[in-house]
Amino acid sequence: MSGYVFWGIVLALIVAAVIALRIWLPEGSAGRKRAKWATWAFVALLVGGFLHYTLPQHDIVRVVNTYQERQDLNDWTRIFWSSPDDQSTGLINRDVQFLQTIKANGKPMVYRNEDTSWSWPPYFKFDTANLQAEAEDLKSTAAAPQWVSVTHYGWRIVYFSAFPNAVAIKAVAGPDVTIIPWFNIVFFVVLLILVLLFRRMWLQFRERSIDPVLEDMGEAWDSVDDRADQAADRARGVWGRFTGWLGTWKGKSRR
Amino acid sequence: MIAFLRLAVFGFIGLSVLYLLLSIYSRSVRRETLEKTWDAENGPGGDGAARDAYIEAGMRDYEKSLRKKLIWLVYVIPMIVIGVTVYLVNYQ
């Protein structure tokens, strides 16, 4: 199953769940309020998870080995692998390069090393082979460690054999160096600016395009109301009532 | 190649939508500013035709302004970002 089908199904399920909840829980009920909270929590989790998976992170590790292994890619866990070139979307299996590393706390971490090319996520990584060579060059032993910072995205999920994708590798002084995530800082600032911009654009649109229409509708309704009142005023007395009744035939009906 | 075309086509569509929305927003903000300037200088009510003429003249100026041209950056900036990313990821 391809990634598009998978995410399409996920999206369809979310939409179906929202529609079902709207029908089952009427407006204003306690259940509706809880459902609203749950929905927002779910959306926050989804967006947070997506960003956590996609944005780059840095690990300080020690490279111990690199290897290449045939991977079967024809089930839903395909979403955890890249599409380095056009054929790769149709291939059932192919060779993938890996970096075996040990973290500062002694725990192992294995990265895959794959091109993202022009596909998602937009790292535009084409230098897999070079990165493998650099990693090979930075290999070290526990006795004489060479610490490196591996820039990567993705998650290591042991159960699904999912690996984060290494994007860059750089030698660092020691296991305790602090790496400032400049890219993520800039990314979130830009994201905040874009969100505020879209909010501003929507408010402007509402103020200039929707509210005037609603006002017009309100005014139209008021004028209908006024005419009805005037008709009621004129309807005092038999003659007045008669002209008032005649008046209701003029122009728009008073409903 | 197909992945590149997909990025190019969907990127172009996405950025065009953004361009359209931004130009509508920018025009709307300019028109509102013109309206408010006129109302501040001439008070409420008054000559409706002169007000319209003033606003239309202001909008014609806007069509030639730098601000309108700057909205083209919507297409330019992402391409620069992609170019810089390709360089930093692969040649650094």
Structure characteristics:
heterodimer; A: 255 residues; alpha+beta; OB fold (Dihydrolipoamide Acetyltransferase, E2P); B: 92 residues; mainly alpha; 4 helices; elongated
Fold and architecture overview:
The complex is a heterodimer of chains A (255) and B (92). Chain A is of the alpha+beta class and 255 residues long. Among the domains of chain A are: 1-54; 56-179, OB fold (Dihydrolipoamide Acetyltransferase, E2P). Chain A has five helices and five strands; from the N terminus they run ααβββαββαα. In chain A, strands 3-2-1-4-5 form a five-stranded antiparallel β-sheet. In chain A, helix 4 (182-234) packs across helix 5. The radius of gyration of chain A is 32 Å and the shape is elongated. The two termini of chain A are 58 Å apart. Chain B is mainly alpha-helical and 92 residues long. Chain B has helices at 2-42, 48-63, 66-70, 73-91. In chain B, helix 1 (2-42) packs antiparallel against helix 2. The model of chain B has no long low-confidence stretch (mean pLDDT 90). The chains are: A alpha+beta (255), B mainly alpha (92). The interface between A and B is medium-sized, with 21 and 21 residues.
Blueprint of the fold:
The complex is a heterodimer of chains A (255) and B (92).
Chain A: H1 3-24, H2 30-54, E1 57-72, E2 93-103, E3 108-113, H3 128-137, E4 147-153, E5 165-171, H4 182-234, H5 237-247
Antiparallel strand pairs in A: 1-2, 1-4, 2-3, 4-5
Helix pairs in contact in A: 4-5
Chain B: H1 2-42, H2 48-63, H3 66-70, H4 73-91
Give the oligomer, counting copies of the same chain as homo and different chains as hetero: heterodimer
The class by helix and strand makeup of chain A works out as alpha+beta
Low-confidence segments of chain A, ≥5 residues, pLDDT <50? Answer: none
Number of strands of chain B: 0
Estimated helix fraction of chain B: over 70%
